[in-house]
């Protein structure tokens, strides 16, 4: 895997990124360490985490993932210098009062969150520090429409950028990114950064997979023209595109019990648990098999080969899953197959948006 550049930054990373949000919930620490060891062995040098993790988010596991990564790094002298580590500051509380008091995300909140992440990660600097979701009201995590009546923004984007600039100046972060953003948000962050000499966002981390290609509805043009790289998350749609739910709905008694979408009610209620998302995933999975591939191979190859994607974030619960995902690298999808994929999208749209 050749390294890819992230935006206008000096970051060069593997085109596959190890997502870690299962560490500390579905994945015990010893297995998480094995997964990280194996990822590095196979050429992955880009890890993504967040202060909010593990997921599903709850008070008992808040910060657990970063702490697991920190202990792994401490036990492996010299490893930190080989890796690009990304983390995130949580946006305004979405029913998670343990993250911070109040519903906002002030400059002081950003500073405190970064300091706490550095301590848990046992590192002096975070290479890419991202805003997990916008401070302003934006439809995300299954919401469909923007509603100005729901606006509660209290910290302007300019002020957020100044807080991040202070962290760069302190040497605590190297570059900044966004997550779950809209075309307006990306453009405004870039505009204000260039106008005021503040850090320019290098990336946006948004969902991108066969059942959610909403990124291609204008955000891809925005990011292309502004040179902001996409970190694609949930390429397997929380397991829908693995085929494990082709025979059973996530809520069926016979469905795989350890899958996140089956195990946690909060996930089922969001975009990935929708019946139309499952129905569309089954069509894509059948198409993969008809073309001599596993559903995982086709779904990941779709992300791995799209011009819109800089690095694809894969989340796994075992070394075996990691190897399966990495083995899909190099799989090519023919123009005829891509046309069939687009036909399904035309008929089912983006059911997991």
UniProtKB/TrEMBL annotation:
UniProt-recorded name of the protein: Aldo/keto reductase
Keyword Chaperone attached: no
Domain NADP-dependent oxidoreductase span(s) in chain numbering: 15-344
Keywords for this protein: Oxidoreductase
Domain of life: Bacteria
MF GO annotations: oxidoreductase activity
One Pfam family here: Aldo_ket_red
């Amino acid at each position: 895997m050749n390294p890819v550049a992230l935006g206008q930054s000096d970051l060069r990373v593997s085109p596959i990124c190890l997502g870690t949000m299962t560490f500390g919930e579905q994945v015990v620490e010893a297995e998480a360490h094995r997964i990280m060891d194996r990822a590095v062995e196979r050429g992955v040098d880009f890890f993504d985490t967040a202060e909010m993790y593990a997921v599903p988010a709850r008070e008992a596991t808040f910060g657990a993932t970063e702490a697991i990564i920190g202990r792994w790094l401490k036990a492996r002298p010299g490893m930190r210098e080989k890796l690009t580590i990304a983390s995130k500051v949580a946006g305004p509380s979405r029913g998670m009062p343990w993250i911070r008091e109040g519903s906002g995300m002030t400059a002081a909140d950003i500073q405190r969150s970064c300091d706490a992440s550095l301590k848990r990660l046992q590192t002096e600097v975070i290479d890419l520090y991202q805003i997990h979701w916008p401070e302003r009201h934006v439809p995300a995590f299954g919401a469909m429409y923007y509603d100005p009546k729901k606006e509660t923004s209290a910290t302007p984007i300019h002020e957020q950028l100044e807080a991040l600039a202070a962290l760069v100046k302190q040497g605590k972060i190297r570059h900044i990114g966004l997550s779950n953003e809209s075309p307006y948000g990306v453009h405004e962050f870039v505009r204000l950064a260039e106008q005021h000499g503040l850090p320019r966002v290098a990336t946006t981390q948004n969902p991108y997979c066969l059942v959610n290609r909403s990124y291609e509805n204008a955000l891809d043009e925005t990011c292309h023209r502004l040179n902001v790289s996409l970190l694609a998350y949930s390429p397997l749609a929380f397991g829908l595109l693995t085929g494990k739910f082709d025979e059973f709905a996530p809520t069926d008694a016979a469905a795989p019990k350890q899958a996140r979408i089956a195990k946690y009610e909060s996930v089922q209620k969001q975009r990935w648990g929708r019946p139309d998302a499952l129905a569309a995933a089954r069509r894509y999975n059948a198409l993969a098999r008809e073309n001599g591939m596993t559903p995982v191979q086709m779904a990941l190859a779709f992300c791995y080969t799209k011009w819109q994607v800089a690095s694809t974030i894969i989340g796994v619960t075992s070394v075996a899953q990691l190897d399966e995902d990495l083995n899909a690298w190099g799989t090519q999808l023919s123009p005829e197959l891509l046309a069939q994929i687009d036909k399904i999208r035309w008929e089912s749209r983006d059911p997991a948006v």
